[in-house]
Structures are given as structure tokens and as C-alpha cells.
Specification:
The complex is a heterodimer of chains A (345) and B (304). With 345 residues, chain A is of the alpha+beta class. Chain A folds into 2 domains: 250 residues, no CATH class; 85 residues, no CATH class. Chain A contains 8 helices and 10 strands. Chain B has an 8-stranded mixed beta sheet, sandwiched between helices. Classes of the chains: A alpha+beta (345), B alpha/beta (304). At the A-B interface, helix 4 of A face helix 5 of B.
Chain lengths: 345, 304
Amino acid sequence: MLVMGEVRTGLLQNSGEIPESLCQSVLGLLSGERVRVSRRPIVYAVSPDQLTGVDCRLASASRARVRGVGTVLSRASVTGGRLLQGSSHIRVVRSESDHRLSWSHYLARAGVVEVFGKVRVPDLAEGFAENGARDDCLDLGSVSERFMDAVQASPFLDRKAPFRSARTRLRWVAECGGPGSTGTGNTSAGTGAGAASGSAASGGAEIPGTGVLSPEGPAIRFTLGRDQVRTLRLVLPGGFTPGVVDFCEDLALHDWLLTTLLVIVERARVGTATRGEVTAKLAPAVDHLLHLWMPAARLDEGFAPFWETLERRPGFSRQWQSLVERVRDQIAINTLALLREAGGW
Amino acid sequence: MLVFAISDKGGTGRSVTGSNIVYRRALQGSDVCYLDFDFGSPTAGAIFSVSSAARGTAQGGMHRYLEGRLADPHRIDIWSESDREGLRTKPPGAGQMVLFPGDEGGGEFSTVSEEMLQRCVRLFARLEEEFDLCLVDLSAGRSFAAQMALAATARLPGVPFRWLVFHRWTRQHIIAADGLVRGQQGLLAVGVQHGHDEEALADHIRFVRTAVLEPDAAELEGLRETQKAWLNECDRELRELAGRHRVGRTSMLGKIPLDPVLQWREQLISDEDVLSSQIANAETVAAFDDLAKKIVDDSAWEAL
């Protein structure tokens, strides 16, 4: 089964972090349902799942005209009262019909998009990962972004963010194994892995896959692109679980933290600007970012190996740690200089 | 912060001055972007020396975004995509500088629909997250784009905004600039229709004089005494006229001297143009630098 999604990550537009109670109000705007909150090891609040009905082209590397009908599953989340994410994904299956069915059919399959005709998994995976929304193709990033915009426009936020930052875009594609996925033809499926919404049953038929990364074991490939775009390719022989989405969101969050801290440190012009200027530029990072680093905090055990792979190369935590130490050392040096000036030692 | 650049008449140097303010602000370390809302004539690409967008972009610009035909308008990173070599190296400590071009063959809007306004609000809110300063270049005169800007800012109470009205230092321009702000269907009147408070809005509007030739300028050295006396008299009359039309010193944010480089080729004036090739005047750069600072300096915007 092919699953693809896009996570957009940005700073919540508020002067400080927001308390848990406010997370409820801010995310509750999206629907009447309850906002789920987990408190350990970091406050994490997530909106109820949102469905967006779609009937449009899907991007394909060969530019083949692939039509998909179904629903996009989205949610918005706030981590540490400070970071906002919009996340959308779809599970792609082959339609067993040759025409569009009634919407009740698709609504019963939350997050499933059924495609008509012959399609190849690598073609769709490549098309989405490389180009995202081309021309009039399904644009999962925009769907995510709209939910983010709705949260950012909340009257509970003061819009006085402590610093400017760009939203990042993590586009991910997972080829999931499981019953029926190793066949080469139209094996009927119904893997019923179940989306986060609880309504399950993929209903359509599996599309034959040819695992571009590694047909046997789990595999991961993370790529940094231009314009804040990152792509993530996954192979999950074990089949789809909602944990995949959690993992991608977690990775997107930490990638945003690292990206943003790198910009803050670069702009501080350590060694060129005066100590006072450097400290002033670094201060927002200390106030708002450094305590948020908690990779794999809420993930299924099964995804731990993926994080371990990323920690080895490119080494997320290693780079983060070195930056954090640099920020703290700069501030310590400035404090010492100020003390010396004041004649305090 | 959103800054709207507007003028009543064409040829005031609104775009070239706006672009140079953005450039100076980026050099001063802010993240800046320039939105080309001059839909009928989207030529900001030429000022930033991006030839692929010299007459607007073919890849989906502001016009198509507002029409709802694409979700992500084309963005051009000037520091990496400008054709001018001197611009392609981002100086250390400089901020981002991004151009959102108009569309090739876009054309002015003939109406502003609710959907279009919502898209505009969403765009401004998103850019405010990322940039310290977003300069929106509106076309000359009263336009739907200006109306949309007024309506959008009324819906974004948390986002600070300011208006710059550009005019040349002539009788016609002074009268026209006053009319654009306070006349019938002027900025204040339309702003009030969209929910702005007239007095508060007026406090967010300042004038910028362009192509100003000071009577004591070095360029006028060779003039006869009678000519100088006449020029002085004209300047005095203009100052009086400006005062009567509330376009005088107190409501002026800055003035840009007449500079041949801006007259003959609208472009960004780099320090190199002043120091090494010496084609531009140091006073011009100083005026841009000053404006770029004043635009974000609250003390220059205290209530009149």
C-alpha cells in the first residue's frame, strides 16, 4: 500500500508559549470534537481528525493522468505550546469501480484515495515526493497549511511572535507491506489497518509495489531540498499503522527546530557582531526553542530504528547538541564580559 | 509588518524607491519580501534584475494566487536568482530578500470578491510569520488592489501596517497625493468603509517625496542668479502648497534626491554603484537607508 502525506511546521504566532488549556481552545476551532492532549514528556495537543473530499489528479513522475477520488485525513497539533503543525495524508488504493461512487462510500474510508485504472507505485511515489503539487494535482501541503492558517488566525493568539521563521514542508511517501501488497496483480485487499479516525477498511485493491529503497526490510531516506522542502521515503514491510504519521510529524518538528536554530545562530554573526548584539539575537532561541528537543518522545517502539538511523546519519541530535552548546557558550562568555566590565570579579 | 506603497500618479518612482527600501532593510539584517500588486504592469522583476520575471512570472504569481488558481505563489530569492552579480552574494548578517512577482499578462482586477479577499488575508498573515517587512507595491491611483489591501488589514488587527504615499515635488503631484489620501474614494474614505478608524488609519500614512531637486544642490551650481532666485521662489510656493494640503514636513517620512541612475535605469543602488563605479550619488543611498530605518521606527510614526 502506498501512503503519502505532507507535514507543515511553524511557530505558533503568539508572544509566549500557550498553556495546555489554551491549546484546547486554539485547536478546538476546527471542529466540535475534543482536542486530545498528552502531557509527558512534553505537552502535545492534537485536533480531531478532519476530512477533505477530493476528486483530482495525483502527481506522477511519468506525468500520466491518474485520477484519485476519496478523502484526505488531516490534523493540526501544538507541541510545547509553541510549535504548530498541520499534517495531511492519504492511503492510495486502486478503485474496484471504473467510475466515481457515491460520497458515502468514500466517507466511510477516511484518508483513503481510490485511483482509477493502471498505476505503478514508484511512478506515484516519485511524482509526489519530487514535485508535490504540480499543476492541478492533489496538493496535500496546501490542505495542511489551511488548517495551520485556521489555528494561527485564532483570536486567542496575540500574533506577536518573538522572531520570524519560515514554515518547513516535509513531504513523505511510505510503501507499506502487509497482506496483498507483495502480489503483482489485482489481489483483493482490505488490509484494514485503520486510520487515526478509527474508520478503517481500505476497500479498494492493492497496487503492486516495487519498493524503490529496499524490497526486503524497513528503509528510510531523508532529503533536504530547496525552499524549505524535505522529502522522506519509507519502506515499511510490516504494513501501515497510524504510527507512521506520528513518526513523520515528529521528524518534521525536529527538522524545523534544527533549521530554525541554524538560521538564528547564522544571523547572530558570532565573532563579527558585538557580544551584546550576538546575545540579543540568540536570546529568543533560549527563551523559546532549546527545551523543545525531544526526538521520538511519543512514538511506537517500532519506529525507534528509524530515528536511530537518522541519528547516525545525518545525526540530528548531534548537530542540535553542538548548536545548543554554542548558543549557551556565547551567552556565558557575554555574561563573563559583562561581569568583568562591572568590576564584579 | 506590512508596508503598502502607493502613488496617485504614475512615474513617481514608487516601485524603484520601494525596492530600494526593501534592499536596504535586508542589508540592515531584516527578512524582507516585496509583493508586486501592480497587476496591470508587474515589472518589479526588472528592478531586482531577475530577467525571467521582468514582465511578471509565467509560473504563477500574485494575480493567479489571488484568483485562487494556485496555492503557492511563485517566490524568487533575490540573493540567489538575480542576474546582477553584485546581488548574488548575500552579505553576512543580511536578511532574506524575496520577490513575489506579478503574472505575465495579468491585468488589473475589475472587482474584489470575498474569496479573493480571504486569500489576500491568508497571504498577508502567512508572510507576516516569515518576514519582518512585507512591502506591497500597489499600482498608481485608486485601484481594487488598494481597496483589497485596506479591507485585508482591517481583518488582521494583530498585524501592524503602514502606508507610504509617493509623490514628486511638483504642484500637480502635491495636490494629487492629498486627493489620494483624503479625497473622494481616497484611502481614508475607503478604509472607513472597510472598518478602519479614520484617525488611526491617517496615523499610519506618510508621504515620501521623490526625485527632489533641492535649490542648493550641487547640480544647480552653474545656474544664473535669476534662475536660482526663481527656483527658490518655486520651492517656497511648493512648501506652502504642501502645508495647505497636509503633505508637508510633519507628515513626510523622507525624500529621495533626483538621481540619474533612478531616472534612466530603475534599479537597486548598491554600495558598489556609489563607491566603485560612482554612477550613483551617496546622498541617494543615504536617503534609502534613512527611509528603511524610519519605516520601522515607531518614533517616526507617532500620531500627528
